[in-house]
Amino acid sequence: MASKVNLVFDNQMHGISTGSHGSSQIGPTEGALAPYEMVLGGLGGCLNSTFQDVLDKRRINIHGVNYVIEGEKRDEVPKWLKRVHVDVSVSGVDEDDKKKVEKSFETATRYCSVYQTLSHVATMTYTLTFKSENE
Questions:
Q1: Pair 85, 124 in one domain
Q2: Alpha helices for 7-87 (secondary structure H)
Q3: Where are the alpha helices (DSSP H) in the chain?
Q4: pLDDT of 68-79, one tens digit each?
Q5: How far apart are CA 73 and CA 35, in angstroms?
Q6: Same-domain pairing of 24 and 90
Q7: N or C: which end of the chain has fewer CB within 10 A?
């Protein structure tokens, strides 16, 4: 399945990216995303979609997932990503399902196309923690 976005910029670095499900401002202004923030957001979206698919197939119920994704660029040119770390917090997991959720996320990292693409240029790591539904 092909994906497509339309990007329109002014004569500087201010722009808007529009896809099939919405749009986002790009650039150095308040409320806009920097290009690497968009890449990391795309990683989070892909990982979550893949993770949820694996959980659904395994019939594992959770309450929610929170992702904090940090990327570090190389100092050398080209300045592509050097490291990416994904901090994942999963809430509402039954004690009996915690190992299954851990295995499901590990599976998601293998099947997420964005994670796998970035792994060719960056060291990819993650941590997964569990929180109660009230946290």
A1: yes
A2: 35-57
A3: 35-57, 98-111, 113-118
A4: 999 999 999 999
A5: 12
A6: no
A7: N
